[in-house]
Specification:
- The complex is a heterodimer of chains A (557) and B (113).
- Chain A has helices spanning 2-9, 20-51, 64-99, 106-130, 151-179, 191-198, 201-211, 225-259, 271-306, 313-328, 343-374, 382-404, 407-413, 417-447, 456-482, 497-533, 548-556.
- Chain A has one domain: Cytochrome c oxidase-like, subunit I domain (Cytochrome C Oxidase, Chain A).
- Chain A is mainly alpha-helical.
- Chain B is 0% helix and 36% strand.
- Chain B has strands at 5-8, 12-16, 24-29, 35-41, 55-59, 64-69, 90-97.
- The chains are: A mainly alpha (557), B mainly beta (113).
Chain lengths: 557, 113
């Protein structure tokens, strides 16, 4: 009976007690985790195909159009539908929480998750219904190749991606509008002061003043360090959205002309130039944003978990500024196998600046670990466990990528399972998601008004299965890559099935881990609570933990 | 594309690959499936006088027979619709002869093009 009671009503969760900010946060988190489940299922389907004919899976999945349709939407649903959604939800809650100001607009935050969800579903449908499958790389002119794909499928796909980007713009506007609001603690701050702090320049000045024996430039920086990371990372999110949107627009124009019966010449666009533009934008997210947002999240989690000040805070602030140069200049590591790419760009952008990521990421790792170390003895809570898991994830994934970002190694590793397994999947599943799970555990009592988690045993099993499954799957994919297995290739005869069976076992662990987490959440909030989260909030407050007067004052303005 | 190329040990070969439509890859693979080397093959559009080259010089130091696989995805049409077999796969494209078992040329001699 107690099981049934938990399933329907949860532990002590009361959705009517949540304010507007808490509700909008939880809505995006729930949708994000549902998309994560879809991604895990898609991954398992593709893995079964790679295992070969003996795999217990319907024959239709071995058809190339079906297989590559799944491969096309897998990253769209994973990166945008799940990761973007979760990161945006966390930051739209954290920025008001950390700056002690209300969120600029809850309505816009609702539009953000709605647009990203709708856009992801549309892109998924384009692949499911029309089997539009140019992969996320959209290498020109494949997305406009109507001899292979339906123009209408492409149009729906591009509209879906565009909606995701519009949702992203909503997030960006909301973040900056909140940071620049001159109320509460920032009532007397100028825009210039907030900008200097947002870009980490005050940290640089503080370091300089320390070196030259002057008093600190700013004793109390206007923005907390995690907000600086969010501020800085969001610049890259914006630029990336512009690149994806304009690339999508280009494809859309070609598809519309094609559908109207007067196709344009695809040869008018240089394929290599297009690749440069596309990768420049994508790496703002893949390298810049992940490293910056993640570093900021680590700093926040380390200080919240220990209750101590961050070790080397000024260096951390200045390093976030330095990341700007790194994230804007690394894209050529994707083009080391393109013989037309200038050698100097391969060397400077592809190898040297890329290798610099070892330093910036290493620094973030070091600062976080020392902060934790100095606060010993610490209780091994779920949030600390997940934070350590996140550190391990990036500790493995970043060097794996740097190994490939070398002109020699790239000759034998480019487009193999090495990069997508040992680097991308470990970075995302272990590095990023475990960091995000840590944030979920930290924020859970705050966002749900102290709802008791159903089972800590389930939490623990989830942790270990996710960690072992994630590292294992990435590692076995990486080993297959070393044996020559390509990443964007269909293998129907189980050519690499030893590695793929091992990866499938680890993938199953990931899928089961997700199911356990889902059960834990549902049993905590109950189905009633889950539905209630999507009902309008009675309490329209757009902040958390601020004195009511501050909010009231804001409304007077 | 020639059916098969026979290469003497330590001979340097220039692979110059062209595409008229999509982005492909050019990868040489050993019989055990491991990769020898690869490069991307961008379509040569020659827009505004720009022609992206897809060429590479490669010296072979070990005997063997190597297959060619496109290392870049170019759409589902590269595979058989029903069986999923790779239609761009070229079996035994390069054969290298005249090397010692541990690698290197059997007898002294200069490189040829």
């Amino acid at each position: 009976m107690s099981l049934m009671k938990n399933l329907i009503s949860g532990t002590n969760f009361d959705h009517t007690s949540l304010n507007a900010l808490q509700k909008v946060t939880l809505r995006a988190v729930i949708v994000s985790f549902l998309f994560y489940g879809l991604v895990a299922l898609e991954g398992m389907i593709m893995r079964m195909v790679q295992v070969g004919p003996s795999a217990p899976i319907p024959e239709q999945f071995f058809h190339p159009d079906h297989y590559f349709s799944i491969m096309t939407v897998h990253p769209i649903v994973g990166i945008f539908g799940s990761t973007y959604q979760l990161v945006f939800a966390a930051f739209l809650f954290l920025v008001p929480f950390l700056t002690k100001k209300p969120l600029y607009s809850v309505k816009l935050a609702n539009w953000t998750w709605g647009l990203i969800t709708g856009g992801t579903v549309l892109a998924w449908l384009a692949a499911f219904v029309w089997q539009y499958a140019p992969l996320y790389t959209l290498y020109w002119p494949l997305p406009a190749d109507t001899a292979q794909f339906s123009a209408w499928g492409g149009i729906v796909f591009i509209i879906g991606v565009a909606l995701i980007m519009f949702g992203t713009f909503g997030f960006i506007y909301n973040i900056y509008a909140t940071i620049f609001q001159k109320i509460g603690v920032h009532e007397n701050k100028t825009t210039k002061e907030l900008l200097i702090s947002g870009f980490g320049i005050d940290g640089m000045f503080n370091l300089w003043h320390k070196l030259t024996g002057k008093p600190p430039y700013s004793k109390e920086p206007a923005l907390a360090l995690p907000v600086v990371a969010i501020f800085r990372g969001t610049v890259d999110t914006f630029l990336d959205a512009i690149v994806i949107l304009t690339a999508g627009l280009l494809v859309l124009v070609y598809l519309l002309f094609d559908a109207s019966g007067s196709p344009l010449d695809v040869a008018s666009i240089d394929a290599l130039l297009y690749k440069n533009y596309f990768w420049w934008g994508l790496d703002l997210v893949a390298d810049g944003l992940v490293l910056i947002y993640v570093a900021g999240s680590w700093y926040l989690l380390a200080t919240l978990i220990t209750g101590q000040k961050l070790f080397m805070e000024n260096v951390a602030r200045a390093a976030l500024m330095l990341e700007l140069l790194v994230s804007w200049m690394v894209w050529s590591h994707h083009l080391l196998a393109d013989q037309g790419q200038p050698e100097m760009m391969k060397l400077i952008s592809g190898e040297m600046v890329t290798a610099f990521e070892l330093l910036t990421q290493g620094l973030a790792l070091f600062i976080t670990l020392v902060t934790l170390w100095k606060a010993r003895p610490l209780k091994m809570t779920m949030e600390l466990k997940y934070l350590l898991g996140g550190l391990v994830g990036f500790g493995l994934a970043v060097p794996a990528a740097i190994i490939q970002a070398d002109m020699g190694m790239n000759r034998v590793l480019h487009n193999t399972q090495w990069i997508i397994g040992a680097h991308v999947h470990i970075a995302l599943i272990v590095g990023l998601y475990m960091t995000l799970y840590s944030a979920v555990y930290v924020l859970w009592p705050i966002v749900t008004n102290n709802t008791k988690l159903y089972s800590s045993k389930l939490s623990n099993i989830h942790f270990w299965m996710h960690l072992i499954g994630g590292i294992g799957m990435g590692a076995f994919m990486g080993m297959a890559g070393l044996d020559g297995m390509l990443r964007r290739h269909l293998y129907v005869d189980g050519e690499f099935n030893t590695w793929m069976i091992l990866a499938a076992i680890c993938g199953t662990m990931l899928l089961v881990a997700w199911l356990l987490f889902l059960i834990n959440v549902i049993m905590s909030v109950g189905i009633k609570g889950l539905i209630g989260i999507f009902l309008p909030a009675h309490d329209k407050t757009a902040s958390y933990g601020i004195e009511p007067e501050t909010v009231a004052e804001k409304h007077k303005v | 594309m020639p059916k098969k190329v026979t290469v003497e040990c330590e001979q340097t070969i220039e692979f110059d690959v062209r595409s008229r439509d999509l982005v492909y890859g050019f990868g040489l693979f050993r019989q055990d499936g491991t990769m020898v080397m690869q490069m991307q093959v961008n379509p040569g559009t020659d827009v505004n006088g720009i022609l992206d080259p897809n060429d590479i010089l490669w010296t072979f130091n070990h005997n063997g027979v190597f297959d060619v696989i496109s290392t870049e995805y170019s759409g589902p049409d590269a595979y058989d619709e029903h069986t999923g077999k790779d239609l761009m796969f070229v079996k035994n494209f390069v054969e290298v002869v005249g090397c010692k078992e541990e690698g290197g040329k059997l007898e002294a001699g200069g490189n040829t093009k």
